[in-house]
Amino acid sequence: MRKEIGAVLRKKDGPLIVQSDFSVLLDDSHPLAEEAREKLAGFAELIKRPGVMHTYRITPLSIWNAAASGTTAEEMVGTLTAYGRYGLPRQIEEAVRRLADRYGRLVLRRNGDGTLLLEGPEELFRELAESPEWAGRLDGRTAAGWTVPPEQRGAIKRELVRAGYPVVDLAGYHAGESLAVALRQGDGGFALRDYQARALDLFYRDQDNSGGSGVIVLPCGSGKTVIGVGAIARLRSATLILTSNATSVRQWKRELLDKTTLTDGDIGEYCGARREVRPVTIATYQMMTQRKGKGNEFPHMQLFRQRDWGLIVYDEVHLLPAPVFRMTAEIQATRRLGLTATLIREDGCAEDVFSLIGPKLFEMPWKMLESKGWIASVRCCEIRLPLPEAERPRYYAADARTKVRLAGENAGKLPIVEELLRWHAGQPALVIGQYLDQLHRLGAKLNAPVLTGEVRQEERERLYEAFKRGEIPVLVVSKVANFAVDLPDAAVAIQVSGSFGSRQEEAQRIGRILRPKTGGNAAWFYTLVTAQSKETEFAAKRQLFMLEQGYRYELVRLAEGSGEPMGAFKEAGGR
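Given the sequence above, the corresponding structure tokens read:
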């Protein structure tokens, strides 16, 4: 790898500046910036991007996910060295090699008698034994390693990751209750796309005990659900599917009935008033975490034990709530598949996803899928507008949280929404926001239905279907539409407010318009931001994941009293 790039960068004028605190600066103006970004993103996370200098951070988890996907320490160090401007600090090279080397040093296997054995180097076990936190956990030592009670399989993996020692779990999985299912063949059948088949193969690995647990990362609209359907057909075992909302439950059921030989009687819905436990059961995270009070048990967690599940699918795995994490620690002998558009968790629990669901097995860059036509081409635009003069005294007198809300509900956003919708007349559009009062005002002004958590599930389904049929040209939606809502024809999304600096929410909202379109396969995403407010800082953070995927946000600044707010954007070829 160094030979390939070395000739280009002999003068050490690379785009990367590697710093001793594990941050890496990427000079976006450098001619090799895109090339370096593509390699760096495989083992580092984008943190911020003020101006042309974008900041990445290398973490133990980013290195272990890279190692799990086959990237070696030599390749990581090679990228930092070859593209580095000033050379690689010795402590960073040593740390990258040390962390990458830790992946695979501890291996969990199953003995012939069914017991579990944690294998690893003697010096590592001595180091753990000397730690007060681990001294009491090592009573099961043998000459071959450390015996682990099966019920502690998940807990031990989670704690070892937190201690800095990831475990490669090769203990295997039980088959679970058998299920007669196959993918539909013939005229009504379908074929997996090449990347979907590759992702499924990496998960399955029939002859390899490392298969059967892990996370597939693909953008909305690229067919993650189809991979889950394929896993069910491949394993042919009873399956529990956990997803984000009742709409998604029904979408999963429709996909299963459409693409497999399963019948309606084989598939149970476990949400709302329905409590159907069948060979394939689809439940919501909300249902699983319902309980009478804070100190009470979670009664629906017994669903994990009601059948001998051979597979559990975690849709939108980045949303996993803590109680489900705890249950997942107990069921490590069951195969687990996580599906998500982004592994970002703003709560810092990504380590739990890694240890309890499995490492990232497959990820495909969004722009690569776009280039092949599997998802729509999206043009992103951030529109900054001033706060109306009449609202400024209240804004400046408010506390920090109220300022965020006032900036988000800026009344000047409404005429811009109206102009954008006129501009995109005839194209199905979503107006997305955080604050209910704002959404209801928009709905009344636009004469459009408002879909929030207040709307009953049956009415939501009716509105979604009317939108799909073209009977409703514009839907105003809250965060209830962030996840797993299939609106394939939506071509325009206008974000008027959001959940602070949530990168994951930004990716999910753009995901609403990513499904392939007939014609030009194009879509537009606009985010309206109040200038010189906390909202501009949040917007910069929200955009980080999409920027890492290769998207660019065109910036339009609007002056107070602009006649036609988007005129400058139009003149620049905005559409």
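Residues 4-11 have pLDDT under 50 and may be disordered. Try to locate this feature in the token string yourself.
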